[in-house]
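TICKET: design request
STATUS: open
ATTACHED STRUCTURE:
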């Protein structure tokens, strides 16, 4: 393999999206990857793609240097190149201009051909794609997924910045488990055993003592045992936590975050006509209590359900629930130790899930802020309270009433874009079977 030519002093002056007939006659430098080369006798057409799309290069015998034409004609698709040349208005070319090259530099010649072309709309096997994810991510649906994701992250952050929230970063290497349920990944921490954090829960609660309103966008790690299209071993969570509010206030904030996300995806789709999304309605997000839905399952279906059971996705489908909705006031039993009991009904928690159809997007609750009650809950769940001494101590300094939630970013993006497999809402998915690339 030839060592790549250096970039040297040459720098890109224009993206393919900057191509405009008004550039006619100007000298431009474009860079990207060779998408296609076609020769017709004395004329060679090449399509170069950068992150914004294609640009056309036209090298004619007699107009362009012979050596340059030879190199262009032989350029292997996927090679990365720099082309300097004169822009020439042309109605047939993308952007209405083609480039008549006077310099061509092959920055890196491709020595392999990927198992599918980036232009392919559907590649049947997701594992084939994941094996060469850097090429796969050039495919249009994925470029739009991550373009929209960027827009969502910006809008969500702007919402929090505009509402007095401090952006926090909490440790991802932790000494003990914060929640039951999903399993932890153990790691070596010097000479001790530690774990990857399954959520920022305890830290974000403590930080309401210092900042009142906090949010974090960061990975959560869960050793999910099963293969599903909605679970990753490493996911990104948008967490928020706030002092002096309860779960109803957090539900309002969650609805607003989701509205901002939908707005951002809508604007993205308008700017990028290639992306077509059926964005869920976020204007009025209905709220149903667990009790109400359990009653409907009992009355409207032949399913056998006990009060206290989790609401299985297939049951929610049977009720015909679709779009976005909240399920509130879950039974206390399966809830983590930090979730608060409802004042007037000890069987019920001050909690909610935000759903999109049968997919859970977020869980939130009012938190326990009474130290002794918290310790009691830990004991009842069989947790070693000694491991949480620091956390319990924080509650002795006047822990205010507080509430919060975590929204799964990949699941939010699945809802916004109608994507069925969570793996395509993340760059490099991690699951039971996959740790590479
Ligand atoms: P589920 O019941 O769907 O497994 P959960 O109730 O265990 O989710 P929570 O602990 O409530 O999840 O986490 C809050 C949010 O984080 C979830 O609503 C979801 O959006 C997201 N999330 C949790 N686990 C995962 C995962 N393994 N992969 C992707 N997102 C996740
Ligand atoms: Mg949950």
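STATUS: resolved
RESOLUTION: sequence designed for all positions
ATTACHED SEQUENCE:
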């Amino acid at each position: 393999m030839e060592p790549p030519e250096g970039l040297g002093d040459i720098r890109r002056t224009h993206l393919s999206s900057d191509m405009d007939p008004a550039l006619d006659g100007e000298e431009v430098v474009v860079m990207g990857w060779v998408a296609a080369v076609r020769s017709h006798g004395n004329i060679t057409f090449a399509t170069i793609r950068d992150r914004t799309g294609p640009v056309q290069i036209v090298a004619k015998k007699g107009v362009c240097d012979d050596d340059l034409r030879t190199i262009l004609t032989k350029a292997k698709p996927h090679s990365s190149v720099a082309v300097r040349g004169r822009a020439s208005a042309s109605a047939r070319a993308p952007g209405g201009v083609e480039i008549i090259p006077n310099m061509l530099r092959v920055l890196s010649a491709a020595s392999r051909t990927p198992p599918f072309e980036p232009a392919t709309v559907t590649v049947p096997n997701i594992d084939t794609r994941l094996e060469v994810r850097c090429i796969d991510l050039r495919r249009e649906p994925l470029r739009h997924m991550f373009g929209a994701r960027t827009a969502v992250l910006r809008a969500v952050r702007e919402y929090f910045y505009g509402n007095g929230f401090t952006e926090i970063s909490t440790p991802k290497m932790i000494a003990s488990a914060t929640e039951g349920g999903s399993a932890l990944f153990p790691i070596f921490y010097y000479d001790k055993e530690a774990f990857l954090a399954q959520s920022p829960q305890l830290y974000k609660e403590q930080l309401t003592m210092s900042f009142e309103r906090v949010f974090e966008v960061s990975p959560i790690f869960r050793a999910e045992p099963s293969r599903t299209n909605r679970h990753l071993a490493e996911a990104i969570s948008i967490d928020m936590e706030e002092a002096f509010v309860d779960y109803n206030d957090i539900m309002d904030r969650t609805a607003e975050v989701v509205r901002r996300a939908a707005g951002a995806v809508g604007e993205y789709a308008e700017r990028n006509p290639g992306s077509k999304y059926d964005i869920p309605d976020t204007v009025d997000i209905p709220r149903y209590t667990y009790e109400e839905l359990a009653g409907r399952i009992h009355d409207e279906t032949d399913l056998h359900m006990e009060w206290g059971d989790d609401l299985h996705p297939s049951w929610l489908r049977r009720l015909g629930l679709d779009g976005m909705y909240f399920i509130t006031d879950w039974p206390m039993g399966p809830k983590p130790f930090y979730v608060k009991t409802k004042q007037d009904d000890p069987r019920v928690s001050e909690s909610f899930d935000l759903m999109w159809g049968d997919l859970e997007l977020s869980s939130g609750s009012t938190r326990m802020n009474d130290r002794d009650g918290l310790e009691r809950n830990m004991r009842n769940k069989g947790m070693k309270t000694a491991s949480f001494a620091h956390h319990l101590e924080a509650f002795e300094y006047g822990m205010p009433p507080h509430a919060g939630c975590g929204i799964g970013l990949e699941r939010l993006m699945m809802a916004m874009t109608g994507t069925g497999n969570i793996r395509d809402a993340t760059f490099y998915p991690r699951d039971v079977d996959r740790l590479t690339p």
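CLOSING REMARK: The pocket of magnesium ion (ligand 2) is lined by residues 353, 360, 363 (CB under 6 Å). The mean pLDDT is 95.
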